[in-house]
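Practice problem: predict the structure.
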Amino acid sequence: MEPIRILIVDDHPGLREGIRAHIESQADMIVVGEAIDGDHALRAFRKLRPDVTLISVHLPVICGIRLVRAIRAEFSTARTIVSTALDDGSYLREALSAGASGIVRKETLRRLLIPAIRAVYTGEIYLPADLASKLRPDR
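Answer:
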């Protein structure tokens, strides 16, 4: 079976390096590219056509949510996971309405990134319970 091909989009080199090492410790995953901003990420996506793209919300040039929208406008079946330090319900709704396939808080990446990638790759929406609770109407 071919490995899950992943594009990492984050403007912090140390974080990209840690994410790459974490992903590549999995036998069924490979990082096919990295991007430091939204513009570079869109060009990389067009060229590499990854199975899953991990996108930081706070990016230079094109923010993460706009990037998800841009990718999904061109590639309707693209699978994206948004990583964020925020857990605001309205923000989460915006990411999902933009077409994100999953959302993971940066503080939980080490624990939740691999399950999120596997879930999104198979077509599921990945939203941890603590974030899903933020989407309730009373929040």
